Amino acid sequence: LPDQPHGVVAQRFATAASYCAQRDGATFIVVRHGVVLAESYTSGNAETRWPIGMGTRTFMPLLAASMVEDRLLTLDEPVAATFTDWAADPVKSTISIRVLISGASGISFDRDGPHDLATAMTLQPRQTPGSQFSDDAAPYLLFAELAHRKLTARGREPDPARYLTTRTLLPIGCVPIGWARSSDGLVRLDDGAAVSARGWAQAGELIRRQGVWRAQQLASSNALSEALRGSFAEARAGFGLWLAGRGSGRDNFQIDTDLWRASSPAPMDFAMAAGQGGQRLYIAPTEGLVIVRQARSLTSSSWSDAQFLSLIWRDL
Length: 316
Hints:
Elements: H1 6-21, E1 25-32, E2 35-41, E3 49-51, H2 59-69, H3 97-101, H4 117-122, H5 138-153, H6 160-172, E4 194-196, H7 197-208, E5 212-213, E6 216-217, H8 221-227, E7 242-243, E8 271-275, E9 279-284, E10 289-295, H9 305-312
Antiparallel strand pairs: 1-2, 1-10, 3-4, 5-6, 7-8, 8-9, 9-10
Helix pairs in contact: 1-9, 2-5, 2-6, 2-8
């Protein structure tokens, strides 16, 4: 935000908090350079954990960046180096971890078929890897399994959620609970975490700081930098995050947002994690801002990202 008199900024945040509350809001918090500027709770308190639906995808880039920092993987290595049965497949053998977690692997579930790991492992890419983006749960399950296998092979905590929590989230004060898991116990990185507003804001702050926390490089700065970049396949999608870029083609996305309308006030380096019902984490690196908004349920309606953000960036 441009420099403004304190009263103007406070009133702006109060108006934004009111907009949240009127739409089944539970939490609203604004953090700038690690300092809480505004905080409001219409239900629960700062430590109450709320389901964030597909906002759970925030934690995939943090898991990837933590593993890169620990030299457990690289973004450009083939997935087939871990899923060795993919090595003989002329198409799947070309998929890198970067392409998988950017949503451009071409692998996606059938709408009416099973949505489990066993099915995901056997799916063939529908498009040439790297060419088209698909907003689908399959890559999140595949990456969780890839992380599990790599952690197990190196003698680390084998469960990706526990590894991420102990290694990265606890040190920053973010402890998501109630991870949704598939029938085989594998954590679902696409949907189902519950986290407090402050905890989610801390996760966003670590992404904004490119992995640095209290002068320690907790997670790979390169991986988190890549998470905030779009791909050739979709300029508006990073690693589990939505970006303020301009895309092309159909918006075949699961999330309902008006972020990309022509008059959207979002800064160009803006990123967003979005769950059903208006669960939101906003990250604006050049402004040093992280904003969290949570609703009481995943079925709330009438949430407008553009309208909410215009209350924050009213002069843009």
